[in-house]
Write a structure and sequence with these properties.
By secondary structure, the chain is α+β, with helices and mostly antiparallel strands. Helix content is 18%, strand content 35%. It has 6 helices and 24 strands. A hairpin with a 2-residue loop joins strand 22 and strand 23. Helix 2 runs antiparallel to helix 3 and helix 5 runs antiparallel to helix 6. The protein is globular, with a radius of gyration of 23 Å.
């Protein structure tokens, strides 16, 4: 039986490719498959497959970039970097095989950086301050941390080439933060959540990568998904009781001298009426924060499950990016919550589908415990960096 090569077609998006210096090198107009996974205040990803030997194969240089836009508006909906290249071929293929290119979304540039306690100095000269403490409205605080640690005002060795920051509009609720060798996304993600903001990195008209902050909106009344509305093919909502709602953490010491801490998710206990205990051995922990962090990790990862995944269809009345975006409140059937992530799949064989994740920042755990864990993780990370 003759081998039939996979189909190749024009995707529903405009896909521009840039080299590592961010200069435009071409357009991809024929491919086999494309997956985009933009994420709210986090790093997403992308994967693209084209036939090996295609003239467009040479466009994807190491460290290069892709820019995916809506052809009807020209607006960029996703920016990603080339951080992986793969070629596959089998002995029954009469052509050169397939090339797959993949990588993270542009927000990976933030994940690649730490927030120093003295951002104006190199890593070996950080003794001038214990923390970089800031208190202001959310947008101003977030942009300042980004600017000083990887933006235009970072020291030359830490500056991300081509990264600029849009003008500060002073939006969002007031926040306070302390940085000490803190992973940048661990720092600004919770700040954005607290301030009611979203952030992203996109190419601006000048061809620079631009760090942007935006204000999500409540689209619950207009961004509605339903089987009966014809824009939802399926949905799955899962609610499960906690496997652990109380963590007993054993710290240092022997016998009667051993220290114990309890971390209780009272919201989960009240909601489900279940107190499920688990013991966590942390004999090497030295502080109460470290013990509490270990306990919080257990009750979040083994806490109540509350997840909603929908498979939606773009229609002329409701389209991702144009009518709703990451961080917006949307309604799916009878559930209203925040849109956390989208997985957009297109293939020449099957067309376009999109799956969205709606809900809290974690599938497991209650909102209160998720926030407490984030706060404890930041404190422990700062403590460890200080030692």
């Amino acid at each position: 039986m003759a081998f039939i090569p996979p189909p190749v077609a024009e995707p529903p998006y405009s896909i521009e490719v840039r080299n590592a210096a961010r200069r435009r090198v071409g357009q991809v107009d024929r491919l086999t498959s494309l997956e985009l996974t933009p994420a709210y205040n986090a790093v997403g990803g992308w994967t693209m497959t084209i036939p090996a030997g295609s003239p467009q194969e040479a466009l994807f240089a190491k460290g290069g970039w892709i820019s995916v836009s809506d052809p009807s508006t020209g607006e960029e909906i996703f920016t990603g970097q080339v951080r992986g290249r793969k070629r596959t071929r089998s002995d029954n293929e009469p052509f050169l095989g397939m090339r797959t290119f993949y990588g993270p979304s542009a927000e990976q540039l933030l994940a690649d950086r730490l927030a120093f306690q003295v951002p104006g100095q190199p890593a070996t000269a950080q003794s001038a301050a214990e923390y970089d403490r800031r208190a202001n409205v959310g947008e101003t605080t977030i942009k300042r941390y980004v600017d000083l640690n990887c933006g235009p005002n970072a020291i030359p060795t830490r500056r991300t080439p081509g990264l600029v920051i849009e003008p500060d509009a002073g939006r969002g609720k007031n926040v306070t933060a302390s940085a000490r060798m803190t992973p940048m996304l661990d720092l600004i993600g919770p700040l954005a959540e607290t301030a009611g903001l979203g952030f992203r990195i996109r190419f601006n008209p000048a061809g620079d990568l631009e760090f942007q902050v935006y204000v999500p909106t409540d689209k619950a009344a207009t961004a509605r998904f339903g089987i009966d509305l014809g824009n939802l093919t399926s949905y799955e909502q899962v609610e499960e009781a906690p496997k652990a709602s109380a963590a007993i953490v054993g710290g240092s010491g022997d016998g009667t001298a051993r220290v114990f801490r309890e971390v209780l998710d009272s919201d989960a206990v009240a909601d489900w009426g279940i107190r499920a205990e688990v013991f966590v051995d942390q004999a090497g922990a030295a502080t109460a924060d470290e013990l509490d962090q270990a306990g919080a990790e257990q009750v979040v990862s083994n806490g109540p499950v509350n997840g909603l995944t929908i498979e939606a269809i773009d229609t002329r009345h409701l389209r991702f990016f144009r009518d709703y975006y990451l961080g917006d409140r949307v309604t799916a059937e009878d559930v209203t919550d925040i849109l956390r992530g989208v997985t957009i799949n297109w293939s020449a064989a099957d067309g376009l589908t999109a799956k969205s994740t709606v809900g809290t920042s974690s599938v497991t755990g209650t909102k209160r415990m998720i926030k407490r864990l984030a706060d404890l993780t930041a404190k422990v990370a700062a403590l460890q960096a200080k030692q």
